[in-house]
Amino acid sequence: MIQISGSGTEVTSPTGVNQASLVSGSYIVKPTDSSLHQDYTFYAKVTAAGGSSEFFGPFVLNVGCNTGYVTYADNSNFVTSVAKNVGDSTSGVYTFHLPTSS
Length: 102
Prior knowledge:
By secondary structure, the chain is an all-beta fold. The chain contains no helices and seven strands. Strand 4 and strand 5 (53-63) form a beta hairpin.
């Protein structure tokens, strides 16, 4: 069982976030009003079948148009062009490196 909480130590009603619903095997958390441009911080209390439980989080749900949360830049090792002649092997020409985030 999963309960959404405003606290990481006890179950309290979170502000602006509905309780998680199970959809196609995944738990989905939605804001109570999706037209607002806000950030919602919440925790998840997970209770196992045997009764033991643990809090996870904090999680932040960003809704709407928010600015400046994450920026991505090309990895410094990313190669955008390689000189090749006709007939040269194209094996291993590009290695795709993950972008960096900040």
